[in-house]
Each structure stands twice: as C-alpha cells, then as structure tokens.
Design goal:
- The protein is α/β, with parallel strands linked by helices.
- It has a domain of 175 residues: 3-Layer(aba) Sandwich (Protein Transport Mog1p, Chain A), CATH 3.40.1000.
- The chain is built from 19 helices and 21 strands.
- The strands form six sheets. Strands 16-17-18-21-20-19 form a six-stranded antiparallel beta sheet, sandwiched between helices. It has a five-stranded parallel beta sheet with strand order 1-2-3-7-8, sandwiched between helices. Strands 4-6-5 form a three-stranded antiparallel beta sheet.
- The protein is globular and about 80 Å long.
C-alpha cells in the first residue's frame, strides 16, 4: 500500500526529493476522482495483503524454482525496458491455452514462447473458474521448462448487462466495501448489493461521457443498450477491475492489459484513475504475485501521467501495444504489408499509425505489435485488410501457410530495426497470432509453429546487454581511487572520498529542514576552483518503509536502477548531462525511516567518466549503518 508518510510528510519530502535529485514534483494537483480511487484501492489492497480480508491465493506454485538468467526478475523495479524486450521478442498474441491444455503446453515448450499477450479476457463472459486457470498456469510454471512464461490477462473496455449484473461480489471485496462505507451510498444492480451493477459503471448524464460509449458494443431489438464502455473514474468500474486483477494475480498471471484506455478513460483527467489502478496491481503483485511484479500495457501510443511528457517522467506502463494494421498488397510476394515502410495508398494508414506509435512517444518503452482481431469492417474502412473488409487475423488466415510464414519472418526482423524517439532500436516486436477466428498456429493445422520456433530461437540467442555496475557488487567494478575515509558519528555514516576534496556541513542551509535532516558536501576542485560536488543528504520519515513502497509513492524511481549498498536497498541513475548545475549522478537509499541521498552536481564542465567513477566509488563505500 502507499505508506501513510506520503500524506503526513508530503511537503517536506516532496521538496527535499526535488532539490536533492533534480526531479520536479508533478505540477498538477490530484483530481477528486483520483483521490477517491486511491482511498478505495489502497484500502482494498491493504485489506487483502494484510489478511484482514480472507482471500486465498488460488495457484499452488507460489514462486519459480529457478529462472533463466536472461529473464530473471523478482521486483517491479526489475521490469526495465531491456528485460521487457527479451520477453516481448518471444511473445504470441491471442493465444488461449485453456481448451486443449496438453497441446498448448507442448506448443509453448516447443516454440520457446515467453509472453502470452491476451491469454485470457472477459468480453461479455461471466468470470471464470479461477481454480481452472490457476491449475493450467501451475502446470507450466511448475515444469522444468516454463517457470518464466508470462500469462497476460485483459481488463477490457467492454461490459455487458447480462455479464455484470449476474457477477457476484466476492466476500473479501464486499468486506472492503463495507469498511469504506461504499455500500451506504452505492446503487445496487437488479440482483441486489452482493452483485456488481452494470448501470453503476458509467453515468448516462455525465457531460464528458461520450454518448456513443453507451450501447457501443450491442443494443437489443428495442434499442436498449446491452453492451457498453465502462468509465474508469466510476467506483463500480474500479471495484470490477480490482476484483479481476486480484484474481488474475493470485492465479499466477503476471501481465495486465487495459484494452483501449482511450475509451474507458474519456473522463480520466491526467490518466490519474488509471495510475491508481496500475499502482494497485503493482502492490498486489509485490506482495502476492508469482514473481512479485506485473507487466502493464494498453492499446495506445502514449499515455502520460498528469500530462508529463519529458523522457524522465513517470511512466504508467511497462510497454505499449498496437495492432499491426496489415493489409493485402502486391508489394511483396507473400501479398501482405505492414510497418513503417508500408505503402500509403490513401485508405490504409498503417505507416502513419506506426510512425505515431514508434517515433512520437518520448518514453523509451518497448512496443508489442499484434495481429489483431476487431471484427469485420466496411471494405473502404482504414482498418479493413482486404476487399472483403476482414480483420487482421481473418485476412492473415486466408493467406496460404507459405505466405504467412514469409510475412512473419520479414516483418519480425524489420520491426527490430526501427528506432524510437530516443534513438533506441530493438524496442518494437511483432507477435505472431495464436488461437483466434478459426486460426491455429499448430503444425497439424497448417500453422506457423516451426517459423515461430525459428524466430524465437533467434531472439533467445541474441546477446544480452552488459549489466550496469549497479547490477553487480559496486565495489568490485570500480577502479581504485586515492582516498580518505570520512566518519560522522553525529550523523551516523561514513564513506571514502577522493583525497583533496573539501568537506562542509551544509545542514543549516537545508530548506525545508525536518527532524533528523542533514547535508554534508564533498567538493572536488580543479585549479583551486570547485569542479563538482558530491552531496550526502538525509531525511527522517515519520514511519518506516521499504524501497518498493517508497517507489510506489514516488514513481519516477521506477525508471532508476535498483541497487543494494551495504545491505540497504535503493535506486540509482546516471545520465550524460554535463552542463553546470545539472546532476548527472543520483542515488537514493531507503532504510526504514531513513532516506539517504547521494548526488553529484556539476559546478563546471569536465570529464564525465571521471565524475561517474568518483560517484560510483563513493556510493559503493557509503556505510549508513555506521
């Protein structure tokens, strides 16, 4: 849960972090809807995690026996883009492994699939038997080959009257609703307060709720809406999503896909309610998940929290997802086309859409491109794949096996060459199609099983980027520096620093300054003038916390590398910004009530590598248990 100190110590902590780390606090204040969502979702997650509400974990394989080194993670902070890439490079889309589990398992094992996009979702269906899903996931996670296969579930942009009104609210969730006082004002559905309510998942009278969202998916013969888009700012929708995400995580799922957020978030200012739901998923996964982390995505090209679009802004998702928008053409012998280099024929906007998805977002996030199914369209529609108006999977299925195989090989490799706005390649991944619209990827059904195996074997053998010094023991990777040791018994820390550095206690200048706050500056000089300084700052919180909870409260830390210094966990980031006044090197350690910050600030320009080395050396020798 988000710790109490966020509320009671918000001002001093926010200002201190901004000053010490160079990261500005979000400019926009929280909306009333976001604050209510946080109150509700925090209470539910706290109730489940603490055991106050009796919610059994359905899976029996509680944790992996042994993970592959190139796919290993055990915390949300481990899901950085390079690791996410390694999963998405072996992803399949729309694969439902439940109807024929033995064949599905063999397919997963044989091809080396590591990420199943949309392995389960509800589009009008009743909630499943969760034990049935968990039993199948257990069979894979408990095997000698599948402990690192990620199952992703969708919480979607569709609710149906017959589905929602008949879905019972489980006891563990109803208990939290009672504790929160929700039931005192909640409008029950036709089956009473112990069931979810379709009518309470959107507001028909809301000015900003698009009228075509009501009945968007189906209306009956009398014109009455039977299938609509839920509003993510409504409490009932948040309860529904919280129920589904909790059950999915407890069953062993490690990915949550938020469907078309653009639809459900029509009234979600700054994507703040979405943010609270993703934080809920992270808290549940950290405490109860199979590997204590969760992949998060949506059908969108860029979703910014509170409109923050700088590269260092907090990101809501681990990756983005988008349809391939493939279409028939004569450009290639295999008769299909997609990608950034697709022909712009006036109807198909494939290249323009992918330009938006790949090139425009400022965040360095991986992108999963799926062969999607969205039903037939009018033949002249921009998303019609052929003259018949087929969706992507149907159009793909109609081509012969040889053409489908050639298409996958060509575009799987082409997508890997695309560079994003940050100049990074290898971030765009084509996911082959699984079981959908009558198509099956199995060999015996003329599918592309062998091609998928070949592509994924290629991905598995790709070299892994060398880990940063923060990923290993820092002291072992830093070259020796002529140094002295500084000990401060009053402040309770020691560290080694370069000989010749000036030392000054700047605690009196801290603004704001709370109990237990101090600041010691180490000044490195060149020609008797300061070239850069390394600052050690400390603040004391009013309640104990741990790195994962702290990062949940201050999301920018999710983009930093996770470190452990002298047994104290925390975060570290290094940039190449050498401009005077900038802070290229920052670290933050979380030790109960103590927050330690080590930051290198440029006074003048100079040798970046030397400064990085000094920072790493001082960080690796910092002892906050002194």
């Amino acid at each position: 849960m988000i710790p109490v100190y966020v509320r009671s110590f918000a001002f001093i902590l926010g200002v201190m972090i901004a000053v010490a780390s160079g990261v500005a606090s979000p400019a926009a204040a929280d909306t009333a809807a976001a604050m209510e969502a946080r109150r509700i979702l925090t209470q539910i997650s706290d109730s489940v995690i603490s055991g106050r509400a009796i919610k059994p974990i359905t899976r029996s394989v509680s944790a992996p026996k042994q993970q592959s080194p190139d796919l290993k993670f055990s915390a949300q902070s481990d899901l950085k883009s390079d690791l996410v890439d390694r999963y998405l490079s072996r992803a399949i889309s729309h694969f439902l492994p439940w109807s024929n589990p033995l064949r599905s398992r063999e397919f997963l094992r044989y091809t080396g699939i590591k990420y199943i996009h949309w392995s389960h979702l509800l589009w009008g269906q009743a909630p499943p038997e969760w034990n049935t899903l968990s039993a199948e996931i257990d069979a894979v996670h408990g095997s000698d080959w599948g402990c690192d296969v990620v199952y992703e579930a969708g919480v979607m942009e569709a609710i149906y009257r017959s589905q929602i009104d008949k879905a019972a609210i489980p006891d563990w969730l109803y208990q939290s609703m009672e504790e929160l006082g929700i039931n005192k004002t909640r409008r029950p559905g036709p089956n009473g307060p112990r069931f979810f309510s379709y009518e309470s998942m959107f507001d028909r009278t809301a000015d900003k709720w698009p009228k075509d969202h009501i009945g968007r998916w189906v209306r009956d013969k009398d014109g009455k809406d039977q299938g609509s888009v839920p509003d993510i700012t409504m409490v009932e929708t948040q309860l529904w999503f919280a129920y589904l995400m909790t059950e999915y995580i407890d069953a062993g799922f490690e990915g949550i896909f938020f469907g078309q957020y653009e639809l459900v978030g029509a009234r979600d200012e700054g994507s703040e309610c979405l943010w609270e739901l993703t934080q809920f998923a992270k808290r549940l996964a950290a405490a109860r998940g199979y590997r204590h982390a969760v992949f998060l995505s949506t059908h969108h090209y860029c979703v910014a929290y509170k409109g923050q679009l700088s590269p260092d802004s907090p990101t809501i998702f681990t990756h983005m997802t988008w349809p391939s928008r493939l279409f028939y053409s004569s450009k290639h012998d295999f008769g299909m086309e997609t990608g950034l280099n697709a022909t712009n024929d006036g109807q198909h906007r494939t290249a323009a859409e992918l330009q938006m998805v790949v090139k425009k977002p400022p965040f360095d996030l991986p992108v999963l491109i799926e062969i999607d199914n969205y039903g037939p369209s009018p033949p002249g529609s921009p998303i019609a794949c052929n003259a018949e108006g087929d969706d992507e999977i149907t159009a793909y299925k109609k081509k012969p096996h040889s053409a489908r195989s050639a298409f996958l090989k060509y575009y799987y490799n082409e997508f890997q060459t695309y560079t994003n706005k940050r100049g990074r390649s290898g971030r765009v991944h084509l996911a082959p199609s699984g079981e959908r619209m009558g198509y099956m990827p199995y060999n015996e059904q003329n599918g592309e099983e062998e091609t998928i195996k070949e592509l994924f074997r290629q991905a598995a053998s790709a070299p892994i980027k060398s880990p940063s010094p923060a990923a290993v023991a820092l002291a072992a990777t830093i070259a020796p520096i002529a140094s002295r040791t500084y000990r401060n018994t009053k402040y309770g820390f020691s560290l080694s620093y370069p000989e010749g550095a000036g030392i000054a206690d700047k605690s009196a200048q801290m603004k704001p300054k709370g109990p237990g706050s101090f600041w010691v500056e180490f000044s490195m000089k060149r020609a008797n003038k300061p070239a850069y300084v390394v600052n050690v700052r400390h603040i004391t919180l009013d309640i104990e916390t741990v790195p994962d909870n702290y990062a949940a409260a201050y999301p920018y830390l999710s983009s930093w590398e996770r470190v452990s210094v002298g047994g104290v966990g925390g975060f570290r980031t290094i940039t190449d910004d050498m401009a005077p006044g900038k802070i290229p090197c920052r670290a933050l350690l979380v030790d109960g009530r103590s927050i330690w910050m080590l930051n290198l600030t440029n006074v003048s320009s100079g040798d970046l590598e030397t400064r990085k080395q000094v920072f790493e050396y001082m960080l690796s020798n910092l002892d906050v248990k002194h």
